[in-house]
Design a protein that fits this description.
Blueprint lengths: L2 E6 L20 H13 L10 E9 L7 H14 L1 E11 L6 H9 L4 E7 L3 H7 L5 H12 L5 E8 L6 H11 L6 E6 L7 H7 L8 H17 L3 E4 L2 E3 L6 H7 L4 E4 L4 E5 L3 E5 L4 H5 L6 E5 L1 H12 L6 E2 H8 L5 H12 L3 E3 L2 E4 L1 H4 L2 H9 L3
Parallel strand pairs: 1-2, 1-9, 2-3, 3-4, 4-5, 5-6
Antiparallel strand pairs: 6-8, 7-8, 10-11, 11-12, 13-15, 14-15
Helix pairs in contact: 1-2, 6-8
């Protein structure tokens, strides 16, 4: 098994753009940990516990709201039930939660990779995104992280905010790059309908950024990070050589993984392929009334997913892989489409299909076109 994802659903406050499942009542953390341990133990002696676990990922929500002793209990339970031989244990954290002792405790527990949700250093943008931390806390946290025992860590940035100027983005990068991060996740702001930001856009109070502006921001990020040896290997992920995230790649390559905690997703491909999701409701989870929505996936669905995920990466998708693993053969119309996009400099096709920097900016449109052509 490639990995285990643990969804820690607690947040101090709601970020304006976030549509992941979370709650702001943090008083139930201990009760949640006990229920999470129970869910882990429920996999004892199942086929899901037979494969070796290569990565563990604490996501959320805000995992850094947990205490080190709670993290220790969770890791001990995973070691007890699963065959853990992890090459990577990632822990998401927010700058306002981080102290030097906290980082030391996590590292001593075996956490090998930190994921820091900075998003921006600009006070106005942080306020707009309704982040709980300040610019000063973000800078202080990066100082702690760069001087900590963590050799592997990633920093999150968000660009393409409404009214965000090119100069503001350049300033964010100017503040980040002196820390020489081994990995950066840079996301274009996505406006989701059920978020605070989505409602403001729907009511006409905020105008979403124009596509050209977002494309310019992408170019700025790509150029500046590349100049510092931090190269893009997926639409939103950049790293120095050898510092790519192992856990995320498992999703892109259809390796088996389990998601634990409310709202977490799992994928398992044995004789048949299934995806299921824990109910996104903490109260139901704590009462042990969680209902899982399970879906069987056809080879056609899996092939289209592989195209969607693989074309977002630097490696792209192998044509022979599609044929052998998914029984998926490109149609004449699809091949003609690929030839046209290659002539436009948006992708390259040999034994693999790979998007160029020009094509990656419109990856969603190209992928949608490709999977709907027959």
């Amino acid at each position: 098994m490639s990995g285990i994802y643990l969804h820690i659903p607690f947040c101090k406050q709601a970020c304006s753009y976030c549509d992941f499942y979370f709650v702001t009542r943090t008083s139930e953390r201990e009760h949640f940990v006990q229920q999470l341990l129970k869910e882990i133990y429920s996999y004892a002696d199942t086929q899901n516990a037979e494969e070796t676990v290569k990565t563990i990922y604490f996501g959320g929500g805000t995992p850094s709201l947990l205490e080190p002793r709670q993290v220790e209990k969770i890791l001990e339970a995973l070691e007890q039930i699963f065959q853990v031989d992890s090459r990577e244990i990632t822990f998401e954290m927010n700058p306002d939660d981080v102290t030097e002792p906290f980082l030391a405790d996590l590292r001593n527990l075996g956490v090998s990779r930190a994921s820091m949700g900075v998003q921006s250093f600009d006070p106005e943008l942080l306020k707009f995104m309704h982040r709980a931390h300040s610019s000063e806390e973000a800078l202080h946290c990066l100082e702690l992280l760069s001087n900590s025992p963590f050799e592997s860590y990633t920093v999150d940035l968000i660009y393409g905010n409404p009214n965000q100027s090119n100069e503001q983005l350049e300033t964010d990068l100017n503040k980040l790059l002196p820390f020489n991060p081994p990995h950066v996740s840079a996301y274009s702001l996505t406006i989701e309908p059920r978020t605070r930001l989505g409602k403001q856009v729907e009511l006409g109070r905020i105008a979403p950024p124009e596509d050209d502006k977002v494309a310019t921001h992408f170019d700025i990020v790509n150029k500046r990070l590349s100049e510092h040896g931090i190269k893009r290997y997926e639409v939103s992920n950049y790293s120095r050589p050898g510092c790519e995230a192992h856990h995320n790649s498992s999703y892109w390559e259809h390796e088996n993984y389990l998601g634990l905690g409310p709202g977490a997703h799992s994928f398992w491909w044995g004789e048949k392929a299934y995806r299921w999701k824990n109910e996104a409701d903490l109260r139901s989870y704590l009462r042990d009334e969680d209902s899982k929505e399970k879906e069987q996936l056809s080879l056609q669905q899996l092939a289209e997913e592989r195209l969607m995920m693989g074309l977002r990466t630097r490696l792209g998708v192998g044509v022979k892989e599609l044929e052998k693993k998914y029984d998926y053969i490109l149609t004449d119309r699809q091949q003609q489409y690929l030839v046209k996009r290659q002539q436009e400099g948006k992708l390259k096709v040999d034994n693999r299909i790979k998007l160029t920097d020009k094509g990656i900016k419109i990856a969603d449109a190209i992928i949608l076109d490709l999977v709907t052509l027959y």
